[in-house]
Amino acid sequence: MLYRRDVKYMIKAIFIDIDGTLRDSDRNLSSRTINALKKVTDKGILVILCSGRPRKYTEQISRECFASKYIITSSGGMIYDYEENKVLYVNEMNKEALIKLYEIANPEDVRYIMNVGEGRVVNKVKHADQEIQLDEDIKDFVYNNPVIQCTIADSDFDKIKNLIPKINKVKNVEIKNRHKSLLDDKFKDDKTVFCDIANINSNKGNAVKKLLEILNISKEDTIAIGDDNNDLSMFEQVGYRVAVDNAIDIVKEKADEITLSNDDDGVAVYLEKLLEENKE
Predict the structure, then answer these.
(1) For residues 176 and 52, is the Cβ–Cβ distance under 8 A?
(2) 153 has which bridge partners?
(3) pLDDT in tens, 192-241
């Protein structure tokens, strides 16, 4: 049993973003972070990973760090119980919007990535062990497969930036997350620039709210830890909000507390402090 230090609410669930929060900038999980998560789960607290990534990837990270069997994937598009192999909630993307987005992305020779089921179907394969090549007409594919989220990505910053106005005109969907450099030039690097796109009503916050209803857990008994724009909706649905130090400014402004950066084991530092404050 753990309690938040500000008030005596019993903590029952902690929602944690993966990339930029739980993992470091090289996408590694430190042993310190894994150990801290295991100590928290050993106390009976649900540690629920929330990611813009697809189901298979999120499950892999969740198992690696001893988090709970529940995961929120595709920026809130799916809630999945991987021990029971059961989809608890899904928000399938608008099919006409998917076709329109493909027609925007494909002629520009950028990657168009669709989260389908547990993995990804793409127009240009980059990771052969994680992706499947789209080998049929886009209309046939989207009308026969439940796509939860799509991503438009490329290493060319200007190319993706120039596509954003076109993406914003597509009805029924919106950009849920984007590379930090598209929000603030100080985050520019040589990594892939991307935009995650989903239905307007699909976000981490709605998924968190839905899972809390399923589990009969009160909002006041929860914590969220994040770094980026798509974590803001998650912050709105929990009792206490923690930002890592590398978070964008708006996330820090909305946080109740700021821990160290993802490269300095910020999640582990916060959880260790929480455990220390609850020592009997």
Answers:
(1) yes
(2) 111, 194
(3) 789 999 999 999 999 999 999 999 999 999 999 999 989 999 999 999 99
Low-confidence ranges of the chain (pLDDT < 50): none
- Give all domains of the chain, ordered by start, each with its CATH number: 2-91+202-277 (3.40.50.1000), 95-199 (3.30.1240.10)
CB-count exposure of residue 147 (10 Å: 0-12, 13-18, 19+): buried
Q: In the chain, where do the E strands start and end?
A: 2-3, 10-11, 13-17, 46-50, 70-73, 78-81, 86-90, 111-116, 119-122, 131-133, 147-154, 173-178, 193-199, 222-226, 240-243, 257-258
**Phi/psi at 233 (nearest 5 deg)?**
-65, -35
Return d(Cα 109, Cα 153) in angstroms, integer: 10
- Residue 152 tokens, joined: 């438009």
3-state secondary structure of 123: coil
Q: What is the pTM of this model?
A: 0.89
Q: How far apart are the first and last CA of the chain?
A: 10
The b-or-e profile of 113-134 (16+ CB within 10 A means b, else e) is: bbbbeeebbbbeeeeeeebeeb
DSSP summary character for residue 65:
T
CA distance 211 to 46: 12
* Token pair belonging to 125: 């394969």
Distance CA 202, CA 200 (A): 6
Contact 37, 64 (CB under 8 A): no
With residue 234 as reference, give the H or E element that holds it.
helix 232-235
φ, ψ at 80 (rounded to 5°): -135, 140
Q: How far apart are CA 145 and CA 118, in angstroms?
A: 12
Other Cβ atoms less than 10 A from the Cβ of 186: the count is 8
